[in-house]
Amino acid sequence: MTSTTPARRTQCEQCAGPLPLMARADALYCGATCRKRASRARLAAERARVEGEQAARVPAELRAQARWVRYSSKKVPLRIDGRFASVQDPSSWSDFTAASKASAGEGIGFVLTASDGIVVVDLDHAVEDGRLLPWAQAIVDELPPTYMERGRSGTGLHLWFRGQVPAGRRIRRGEIAIEVYSDRRYMIVGDRVSGTPLELAELPEAAQVIASLV
Fold first, then answer.
1. Is 23 exposed, middle or buried (0-12, 13-18, 19+ CB in 10 A)?
2. Strands 157-162 and 201-202
3. What is the DSSP string of the chain?
4. Which of 201, 176, 200, 155 is nearest to 65 (CA)?
5. What is the Cα–Cα distance from 138 to 65, expressed in whole angstroms?
6. Is 103 exposed, middle or buried (0-12, 13-18, 19+ CB in 10 A)?
7. How far from chain centre, in Å, is Cα 100?
8. Residues 166, 208: contact at Cβ < 8 Å?
9. Which residues does 71 contact at the CB level (< 8 Å), separation at least 6?
10. Cβ proximity of 119 and 183 under 8 Å
11. Cα distance between residue 195 and residue 71, in whole Å
12. CB–CB of 180/206 below 8 Å?
């Protein structure tokens, strides 16, 4: 039984030009310039892939708003260039595409403003071993189907609605931990819960509705 040696590459993988005669047997590029171009192309492809995946799991009505920031490992909002952002300074926010492509911080977040009429119901410590705890499941079952995503910790759940609350609200009763926000707050956007809508349901008088469920 004989083995065959793979044919030696003769063309640059980037520009299709000839490889130098003295190039290594495993060489892919004709020189440093093509090597750098190929590296940039790979990075661009990876950014496009990540952006596409994010777009597929974030509702269009959120992506259309220039309310996006990055966030640090300590959950501090950041501009896309890594400087601090403020939930009260629109000039420090960006559009979805720019925020998704940026490399600063750990990921992306959305700034809530009263004028947008978006409410987020944050169920804290609601997931255990990949399953909703009974109190959280009861609340989800009573609310209209809407866009939901997991918090950064993996134990929280964010439910996004069309509505408004006059002020942020926190509810603590035993193991129940709920926060409701619609203004001057940014929400880290995590992974969409599989099977949930890619749109926001209407929830008028959100704070009262949530309070009535617990």
1. middle
2. parallel
3. ----PPPPP-B-TTT-PBPPTT--TT--SSSHHHHHHHHHHHHHHHHHHHHHHHHHHS-HHHHTSS-EEEE-TT--EE-TTSSB--TT-GGG-B-HHHHHH--SSSEEEEEE-GGGTEEEEEETT-EETTEE-HHHHHHHHHSPP--EEE-TTSS-EEEEEE---SS-EEEEETTEEEEEE-SSEEEE--PBPTT--SSPEE-TTHHHHHHHH-
4. 200
5. 31
6. exposed
7. 8
8. no
9. 77, 78, 105, 106, 107, 108, 109, 186, 188
10. no
11. 27
12. yes
Q: How many CB atoms lie within 10 A of CB 144?
A: 12
Contacts of 168 (CB under 8 A, 6+ apart): 179, 180, 181, 182, 183, 185
Walk along the chain (214 residues) and give the pLDDT tens digit of each residue: 555 656 778 899 999 999 998 888 889 999 999 999 999 888 878 767 766 666 678 999 999 999 999 999 999 999 999 999 999 999 999 999 999 889 999 999 999 999 999 999 999 999 998 889 999 999 999 999 999 999 888 889 999 999 988 777 888 888 999 999 999 999 999 889 988 999 999 998 777 787 787 7
Structure tokens belonging to residue 108: 């992306």
Which tokens in the block code for residue 114?
């009263």
Residue 22 CB burial class (10 angstroms; 0-12, 13-18, ≥19): exposed
Q: Are 159 and 123 in contact (CB under 8 A)?
A: yes
Beta bridge partners of 107: 71
